[in-house]
Amino acid sequence: VQLLKEFRPDVMYLTTTDYVQHKYAPGVPQANAFYEMFDKYLVELDAQGAAIVVTADHGMKPKHHADGSPNVVYVQDLLDEWLGKDAARVILPITDPYVVHHGALGSFATAYLPKGADREAIMAKLRKVEGIILVLGREEGSARFELPEDRMG
């Protein structure tokens, strides 16, 4: 805001870390306080005539229960139970060893099923698992997220 007051650039790009969003669940006081602060700055930028675009690189979901235990669905364990140990392979491409920030937990999983597995039946079972928000097949997932189909599970 101060930069815009002192130096009127034609284009200004601002980026923030998503530390707060990873540390606190949506709707809790700490997250709400962050958004109130953010909104205050947006109001100030708007008052100065700035054209504002706000984007995000992903959604958020609580990574821990109130007692501190992980809010995790172990998809590999489910597929091992349904198809046999190590018959399928689950890869979590969104992981991070910086556990304070990201919890080292991925919210996006790619599953590679064995030949002959009933993909539609497995997807239907996964859709019924509490905590799983969305299940997509290779074709739909690739199209929705603009990913190469030949590299998807």
Summary keywords:
two-stranded antiparallel sheet; mainly alpha; Gyrase A, domain 2
Concise structural overview:
With 153 residues, the protein is mainly α.
Task: Describe it.
This protein is mostly helical and 153 residues long. It folds into two domains: 2-47, no CATH class; 75-151, Gyrase A, domain 2, CATH 3.30.1360. Helix content is 39%, strand content 4%. It contains seven helices and two strands. It has helices at residues 2-6, 19-23, 29-47, 75-83, 99-102, 119-127, 138-145, and strands at residues 89-91, 110-112. A two-stranded antiparallel sheet has the order 1-2. The N and C termini lie far apart (45 Å).
Residue windows where pLDDT falls under 50 for at least 5 positions: none
Helix content: 25-40%
Label the overall shape: elongated
Biggest sheet character? 2 strands, antiparallel
Q: What portion of the residues fall into strands of 2 or more residues? A: under 5%
Number of domains: 2
CATH topology heading of the largest domain: Gyrase A, domain 2
End-to-end separation in angstroms reads 45 Å
Report the count of strand segments: 2
CATH homologous superfamily grouping of the largest domain: Domain 2, Phosphonoacetate Hydrolase
- What is the tally of helical segments? 7
Order of strands across the main sheet: 1-2
Please tell me how large the radius of gyration is. Answer: 20 Å
Top-tier CATH class of the largest domain = Alpha Beta
What's the mean pLDDT score?
86
Oligomer: single chain
